[in-house]
Amino acid sequence: GAGVSQSPSNKVTEKGKDVELRCDPISGHTALYWYRQSLGQGLEFLIYFQGNSAPDKSGLPSDRFSAERTGGSVSTLTIQRTQQEDSAVYLCASSLRPSTDTQYFGPGTRLTVL
Amino acid sequence: SQQGEEDPQALSIQEGENATMNCSYKTSINNLQWYRQNSGRGLVHLILIRSNEREKHSGRLRVTLDTSKKSSSLLITASRAADTASYFCATGRLSSGSARQLTFGSGTQLTVLP
After folding, report:
1. Which DSSP string do the residues of B3-15 spell out, in sequence order?
2. Which of A2, B9, B77, B90 could bridge to B102 as Cys pair (CB 3.0-4.6 Å)?
């Protein structure tokens, strides 16, 4: 595709529900990254994929957060039993190779947990 | 862990003036990047400067890097109202599997008044 796409663009959910966020990276990009941005804050690294494997999960804030990537392309970030503090914009980025420095970002998913 | 911190947190200037934003970080880096974000959504990569570079230009952008002071500056010359956005510096370091995990600062909100 022309760029990184994410869906949904906005998600409102009730506390305790599970949510799935989707990321479609740029075609051919092998590395995929998830970040979280809380209101007025910088970006917080969550997880990184090289192909379908996730060598670095160090940023996942709790075991309620998980992510997978299939076919070396689409990735889903799942948050179980959402809490109000999970409210944030979730940004996905991809890069051509893991060693390539420039990451290209999607428009993000704004998650609001009521 | 290393962290980019921008200052000022907010900057308001008149169209045509130059805008300077600064970034400081704590540990050794491979590179430093500047990103722009409009309306709290996707980030756009502006420029990357490597640790062995001191200055880099791209259009109206000029970035400097002083590794001895662990600081960088972004200068936008002849600013336009369309430059209004949040600007983030991000430092790159090696993560597992040779990925470049980016560590972002909290950003500078630039407002260019027409």
Report:
1. --EEE-SEEEEET
2. B90
User: Domain range spanning residue B48?
Assistant: 5-113
**CATH number of the domain that residue B40 is part of:** 2.60.40.10
Question: What is the domain count for chain B?
Answer: 1
**pLDDT beneath 50, residues of chain A:** none
Tell me which chain B residue has its CA closest to the CA of residue A96.
Answer: B99
Closest CA to A109 of A81, A63, A70, A75: A75
Query: Is any Cβ of chain B less than 8 angstroms from the Cβ of A34?
Result: no
Identify all chain B residues contacting A95, using CB atoms and an 8 Å cutoff: 100
Report CB contact under 8 Å: A101, B97: no
What pLDDT digit, counting tens, does each position of B32-44 carry? 999 999 876 788 9
Domain A5-101, second-level architecture: Sandwich (2.60)
In angstroms, the Cα distances linking B69 to A13, B29, B30 are 45, 12, 15
